[in-house]
Amino acid sequence: MSNLEPVQFNEVKTPxxxxxxxxxxxxxxxxxxxxxxxxxxxxxxxxxGGCSGxxxxxxxxxxxRDTDTxxxxxxxxxxxxxxxxxxxxxxxxxxxxxxxxxxxxIENPNPMGGGCSCxxxxxxxxxxxxxxxxxxxxx
Length: 139
Known about the structure:
Layout: E1 19-20, H1 22-34, E2 41-48, E3 54-61, E4 69-73, E5 76-80, H2 85-88, E6 92-97, E7 102-107, E8 115-119, E9 127-132, E10 135-136
Parallel strand pairs: 1-6, 2-5
Antiparallel strand pairs: 2-3, 4-5, 6-7, 7-8, 8-9, 9-10
């Protein structure tokens, strides 16, 4: 007979959504307006490459497929495909413009290596860089 008690693990549950902060909603709406895009959504995706083999990305898109999951945050729809969804659930997308940095920041509770951020350019929110702390671990 053992005197050991079972180990209790605390379950960490992440929300089953992708969230945009008000600043991110405003930035995406501004991109839609600047490019005169009507009926578009913010597509979020995961692809091979990056710090830990997976890199997160974003694009403005008007092709919403039947297999996509759609999240509505205020006036902006967020669309994610069935493969990428597990990398995005519980993530929060923010937009930062503080004079030092400007772009979309992704806070992601899913284990993927370093934190990731996406810069904004005039065409779309799709240029990506991953880093942890002040350094960068991929191009």
